[in-house]
Write a structure and sequence with these properties.
With 263 residues, this protein is of the alpha/beta class. It has two domains: 94 residues, Rossmann fold, CATH 3.40.50.2300; 146 residues, Response regulator (Rossmann fold, 3-Layer(aba) Sandwich), CATH 3.40.50.2300. It has eleven helices and eleven strands. Helix 1 packs across helix 2, helix 3 packs parallel to helix 4 and helix 5 runs parallel beside helix 7. The chain is elongated. The model has no long low-confidence stretch (mean pLDDT 92).
Length: 263
């Protein structure tokens, strides 16, 4: 007769470290954790309990694994694509809206955004000759002020990074971009589905499905250190209705790469 599987679901809230400590003390057979803040907290609490992460950028650079091919410790999982995606997003936005000269990087300044994402964006901005505002925001009204100031200067655009803050305020960000007629590129498909111009990022549903196979393998006896970290691929979703409203034309080669085009 097969073993039953017990799931203990926890929401970290404002105290990720305490939640991680409580979870480790419960001694589960395997831990599944989402995001950089989550894996960072669990990593500080245990180096022995098998841990599978989802939606973490550059886990090797952060020190969570020895390498993507041979993690070597108690941690493995499904990673976001490399930090270079941040520079790619900026290039794609410039291809769609060639007149932009300044870009606001929309992110939570208190969230541990992987440094590689910021460096890749700054490097791309320099190459493209774009003025980049990357200080970040912490509160919705602060973000609104930043977007309003960008719109006043004209020829601006938005690059939205993934974080709990931008996820919580996704509808507001999309509405502000539409109100101020700002081309914007987003990290997840749900933004484009909800009216954003284009999303260029990972398919989180597929990532969780992949993580489930890792959990299954660990429970069957596989060592996390021997399971290579899987880097997911980029999914592009284009909202042509929004593009037309902004008077923009999506390059044919970008449309050809899109997994979904919203008419």
């Amino acid at each position: 007769m097969g073993r039953s599987l017990q799931l203990d679901l926890r929401w970290a809230g404002d105290n990720t470290r305490r939640s991680a400590a409580e979870l480790v003390q419960s001694a589960p057979d395997v831990i599944v954790v989402q995001g950089t803040m989550g894996i960072e907290a669990v990593f500080l609490e245990t180096r022995t309990i098998p841990t599978v992460f989802v939606q973490v950028t550059d886990p090797a650079a952060a020190g969570f694994v020895a390498s993507l091919s041979r993690p070597g410790g108690n941690v493995t999982g499904v990673a976001n694509v490399a930090s270079s995606i941040a520079g790619d997003r900026l290039r794609v936005l410039k291809d769609i809206a060639p007149d932009i000269v300044r870009v606001l990087l929309v992110h939570d300044r208190n969230y541990p955004t992987p440094p590689g994402l910021l460096r890749a964006t700054e490097s791309a901005a320099t190459i493209l000759g774009l003025e980049l505002a990357a200080s970040g925001a912490r509160y919705a009204n602060e973000l609104e002020n930043q977007i309003r100031d960008l719109a006043r200067a004209s020829n601006g655009g938005l690059v939205v990074l993934p974080s709990p803050f931008t996820g919580t305020h996704s509808e507001r960000i999309i509405a502000l971009a539409a109100r101020h007629r700002l081309p914007a590129i987003y990290p997840k498909p749900n933004y484009a589905v909800a009216g954003g111009l284009i999303s260029y990022g990972v398919n989180t549903s597929a990532m969780w499905q992949e993580a489930a196979t890792y959990v299954d393998r660990v429970l069957r006896g596989a060592r996390t250190g021997d399971l290579p970290v899987h880097e997911t691929s980029v999914d592009i979703v284009v909202n042509l209705k929004t593009a037309r409203a902004l008077g923009l034309t999506i390059p044919p080669e970008l449309l050809a790469r899109a997994v979904k085009v919203i008419e």
